[in-house]
Amino acid sequence: MIKFFRKIRYNLMEQNKTRKYFKYAIGEIILVVVGILIALQINTWNQDIINTSNEQNYLVGLKNDLEKQINAFNGSVEFGNIIIDIGESTLEDFSLTGNLLQIDSINSKLSKMMYSLSYPNIETTFNELNTTGQLNLIKEKSLRSKIIKYYQNSESNKESVNGNLQNVFYNQIFPTIKSSVIIHPENFRFNSKKINKALIREKLNVEFESNLVKPDKEFEIVNAISMVIIVTNTNIKHIQNSLEEAELLLKDINKELNND
Fold this sequence. Notes:
Structural class: mainly alpha
Transmembrane segments: 21-42
Keywords: Membrane, Transmembrane, Transmembrane helix
Order of helices and strands: HHHHHHH
Number of helices: 7
């Protein structure tokens, strides 16, 4: 094609048709420019198709992450409420008996209050979007803002939960309860036929019972139970805040996916 145009130019020059040559040259330039513009437009269309495909993939990834996180949030709230119920029933029994030893299954109840309520953190897709600078692929600005805001708030709630666990639960509550119970692996969902629970309890029971009736130890344990209830309830509220925001964001993402 280039040789063809070049041959025409040579023929015009040889025939001394200057005006026609310039007209042809201008036409050739316009043709080249139009070709370039068409090529650029095609590239733009292709890139738009790629970007749209990537946006859909990321939205689906965010949707899957949120669905998993919502399930985890619900599980954490349910688990936290179980811990609170155990703590409240233990305090209720203590208020009636005035003696920790008279509370049924006190060792098991105290052991279960050694469980902590962690924050479910599932943000694989958002981290990829953020670290690769691909957040702008989400074309809908309001949705993009909601996504960023959700994960910022989620991070804040996670820090609050982790702060409560580290500063209050593990530093203050956990040591008190740990030093007050006979720890059986089965109380922590680990069963072993090799462990003689009855023998261990028999050997340690005297120390266990004498420890619980000490006024100062009793005081510490009752306060620790109350703190378990307070910390767990506080962390549940942080998780519920994220849960509500996650459900709203999931609806917006589903709406965007269905529109496409």
